[in-house]
Write a structure and sequence with these properties.
The protein is α/β, with parallel strands linked by helices and 226 residues long. The protein has one domain (3-122, 161-194, 206-223): Spore Coat Polysaccharide Biosynthesis Protein SpsA, Chain A (Alpha-Beta Complex), CATH 3.90.550.10. It is 26% helix and 23% strand. It has helices at 32-41, 80-91, 111-120, 167-177, 185-190, 214-223, and strands spanning 3-8, 26-27, 30-31, 48-52, 70-73, 98-101, 127-133, 138-141, 147-151, 157-166, 197-200. It has a seven-stranded mixed sheet with strand order 5-4-1-6-10-7-11, with helices on both faces. Strands 2-3 form a two-stranded antiparallel sheet. Strands 8-9 form a two-stranded antiparallel ribbon. Helix 2 crosses helix 4. Bound molecules: cytidine-5'-triphosphate (CTP) and magnesium ion. Cytidine-5'-triphosphate is lined by residues 8-16, 21, 23, 52, 76-80, 83, 103-105, 207, 209.
């Protein structure tokens, strides 16, 4: 089976609020999303790294990506799930090929984390995702902002990416869930009655969402020499 990394990068970065989408900001000498693409391309088991950008994208061609395995698809949609679904349609992978969907904005992904995910899912029929156990005590609020309950955190995880699924299964799950507001691939798969495997990610694999996130990303990449 082929192993394809699919990186949705068609968002506008509205919460970040920069003139260009956050995935194109310069970060340690490269566009922000270059770092994640380079990590995925550096994983020997991954055959192809496909990035999905908006048909109206004005920035991608300004950079020299110089990465092996990289291909670009200008088929981004109105939501992240739609961008992924469109990318899958363009790639037309085999039923049992693996697809690793990774946020362009998670620029501090490490090769080790990707390889941990791939190893944990060897032979798995469905797939799974990197995730992090919730570190803090969790409170449920009532309508007035008081604590209604303390939620036991021992079974709670924060979903990260990559999220790795069999291609046929993922395409069907996203096709049926596209109308609803699905924020990750796993929830689409869960709605099919299937159970993705949780694989321990790492705290460095956070998503750049606000300007305040850049300093940490810079420091992490600099410490790795990138
Ligand atoms: N994404 C996408 N297509 C969309 C929306 C988002 O490919 N229509 C991608 C983003 O480019 C990003 C990933 O999905 O790599 C995670 O989304 P998020 O962090 O929310 O990025 P944005 O949607 O760009 O940011 P915001 O929600 O603040 O506008
Ligand atoms: Mg978004």
């Amino acid at each position: 089976a082929q192993m394809i990394a699919l990186v949705p990068a068609a968002g506008s970065g509205s919460r970040f609020g920069a003139p260009s989408p956050k995935q194109y900001l310069q970060l340690n000498g490269r566009p922000l999303m270059w770092h994640a693409l380079a990590t995925l391309a550096a994983v020997p088991a991954i055959d192809k790294v496909a990035v999905v950008i908006s048909p109206q994208d004005e920035w991608f061609d300004d950079f020299d990506w110089s990465l092996p395995k990289l291909e670009v698809h200008r088929v981004g949609g109105a939501s992240r799930a739609q961008s992924v679904a469109n990318g899958l349609a363009a790639l037309a992978p085999g039923e049992d090929d693996w697809v690793l969907v990774h946020d362009a904005a998670r620029c501090c992904l490490s090769v080790a984390a990707v390889e941990r995910l791939i190893a944990a899912l060897a032979g798995h029929p469905v797939g799974g995702l990197l995730a992090l156990p919730v570190p803090d005590t969790v409170k449920r609020a009532d309508a007035e902002g008081h604590v209604a309950a303390t939620v036991p955190r021992n079974a709670l995880w924060l979903a990260q990416t990559p999220q790795m699924f069999r291609a046929g299964l993922l395409a069907r799950a996203l096709g049926e869930g596209a109308a609803e507001d699905i924020t990750d691939e796993a929830s689409a798969v869960e709605r099919q009655g299937l159970k993705p495997l949780l694989v321990e990610g790492d705290a460095q694999n956070f998503k750049v969402t606000y300007p305040r996130d850049l300093a940490l990303a810079k420091a992490i990449l600099a410490a790795r020499g990138g």
